[in-house]
Amino acid sequence: MVYRTGGRRTGFTLVELLVVIAIIAVLIGLLLPAVQKVRAAASRMRCQNNLKQLGIGVHAFYDVNTTLPTYFGIFPAANGGVYPSSNRASMYGSWFAHLMPYVEQDNVWKITMADIASSGWNEPHYTSPPTYIPGSGTTIIHYNGHDYISQPGSSVGGSGYTPDGIWIDSVHPVAFKVLKCPSDPSSPTGQVYGGSWGSTNYLANYNAWSQNSSGLWATPVSFATFTDGTSNTVLFGEGYANCDTIGRIALYSWYYHNFGLDWYQQPNTLMFQDNPAVKDCDNWRSQSAHTGGMNIGLADGSVRSVSPSISQKTWTSALLPSDGTPLGNDW
Length: 331
What we know:
Layout: H1 14-65, E1 72-74, E2 92-94, H2 95-99, H3 106-119, E3 131-134, E4 139-143, E5 146-150, E6 153-156, E7 202-204, H4 206-209, E8 234-238, H5 254-257, E9 273-274, E10 287-288, E11 294-298, E12 303-306, H6 312-319
Parallel strand pairs: 9-10
Antiparallel strand pairs: 1-2, 3-6, 4-5, 7-8, 8-11, 11-12
C-alpha cells in the first residue's frame, strides 16, 4: 500500500521567485521615468513660483517707492550716489537686501536696520583702518575660465574691526527658501560661501535694473524707462548657486551675482546655458537646471519658460528694456 503525504506548499520555488523579481524590476523600470518626470515638473513649478514671488515683491516695492530697488548699494540714492558712505543710515547691499520686507523677510530686514540705527554703520568698519600697500607689477588671475590682470597688494595694520549691517552674525548666515531651486545640481545643501550670504538660484538682469553707465554703482530705475514694455523685458533669470569659487549670493551681489555684468563692470547679454554640467558652468552667464529651457521672471510680474533654441538676437532684445528691437518669433 502506498501512502501520499498531504499539506500545502508554504513557499515559492526558485524559478517562481526569479519570475516575480523580474516582473518587479520591469515595473520599476517603467515607473522610474514617470516618477522622475513628476519630480522635474514639481521642481520647475516651485522655481516658477519663487520667481513669481520675487516679481510680486518688486511690484510691491515699486508701489511704495516708485522705482526698482538699487541693484547694488544703498536705497534710496543719496548725495548723488548709492555708495554706502552716501547715507550710513540706509541699508547697504544687493537688490534682494532691499527687497526683503516685500518677500516675507521683514524680520531679517528689521534686525539689520536696528543694527545700522544703533551703530551708525551700514558696513563693517575699523576703529583704526588698515593701510593698503600696493605691490609692484601685475599678475594674471585665472578665474573660472577667464583671465584677469590684477595688481597685487596687501593690507597692513588695522584694529577694532566691527561687523555691521548685513555682516552681523544674526543676518549673514540666513538661508532664504524663496531663492532656492530644488533642481540645482551645484549646491545640494542650498548654501555656498561657507553657508553665508543667502545662496541664490535667481539672478537679476543687470541690463534692466541699471540702465545707465554707472556700472556696479548704478542708481535705481523706473519702469517708465522700459520703453520696450515690461512684458517684453527679463527681470530675473535662473543660475547655479555654486558656479565658481565663491558662489552666487543674494545679500551682497556684486560679481558674486553675474547676470548681465562682468568682472570689469561691463554689461553683457550672454546666452544662458541649458542644464550644463556643474564643471561647465560659466559664471558670467545664467543657467537653467531644468532640461528644455530657462525659467524667467518678466518685468510685468509674469513668469514663463524660454526655449534653449531661442536666438541670440531675441535673447539680447529680451534683456534690454529699451533697445527698440521687437522680440523674434522664437520668443
